Amino acid sequence: MNTVREQNITSVIDEVKRGVTQREAAQNWGIPQATLCDHIHGATNKKTSKLANWRLSPKEELFLVNWCLNEEASTQPPSKAQITRIVIIVLAKGGDFTPINYR
Q1: Which residue, 56, 102, 57, 54, is CA-closest to 80?
Q2: Angle, in degrees to the nearest 10, between helices 4-17 and 22-29
Q3: Long-range contacts (CB closer than 8 Å, 24 or more residues apart) made by 38-43
Q4: Cα→Cα distances 60→21, 39, 43, 68, Å
Q5: How far apart are CA 8 and CA 30, in angstroms?
Q6: Distances from the Cα of 9 to the Cαs of 19, 50, 82, 92, in angstroms?
Q7: pLDDT digits (tens, 9 = 90+) for 60-82
Q8: What's the pLDDT tens digit per position in 20-61?
Q9: What is the number of alpha carbons within 13 Å of residue 33 lying toward its C-beta?
Q10: Is 52 exposed, middle or buried (0-12, 13-18, 19+ CB in 10 A)?
């Protein structure tokens, strides 16, 4: 999901690709030139950057939350060990076999 700011940055980058200078395009759209320059060179927003470091996708995380809620509603809350086993299974289905480190 793109925010208005992300859509604006995309539009500014398109203008630069059409030949408008970075400074002029940034001024036209009210975006700092440094931000525009960063995005032209591959920077992403914080949310996208953080998602890249997560092992579970938002969809997988939602599955885990719903599973926990269903377990709690039917019998009792799942233990930390049970949750860990489910996470390991979900990660393995996605090809991630790295051990889980938690405290």
Answers
A1: 102
A2: 150
A3: 39/9, 39/13, 40/13, 40/16
A4: 42, 29, 26, 12
A5: 9
A6: 15, 19, 44, 37
A7: 999 999 999 999 998 888 998 99
A8: 888 888 888 888 888 888 888 776 666 665 655 678 888 999
A9: 7
A10: exposed
Report the alpha-carbon distance of residue 101 to residue 103 in Å, rounded.
Answer: 7
Tokens at residue 32, please?
């700092």
Residue 60: helix, strand or coil by DSSP? helix
Residue type, 87: V
Provide the b/e sequence for 8-46 (b: ≥16 CB within 10 Å): ebeebbebbeeeeebeebbeeeebeeeebeebeeeeeee
- Asked if residues 55 and 61 have their Cβ atoms less than 8 Å apart, the reply is no
Rounded Cα distance between 8 and 47, Å, is: 17
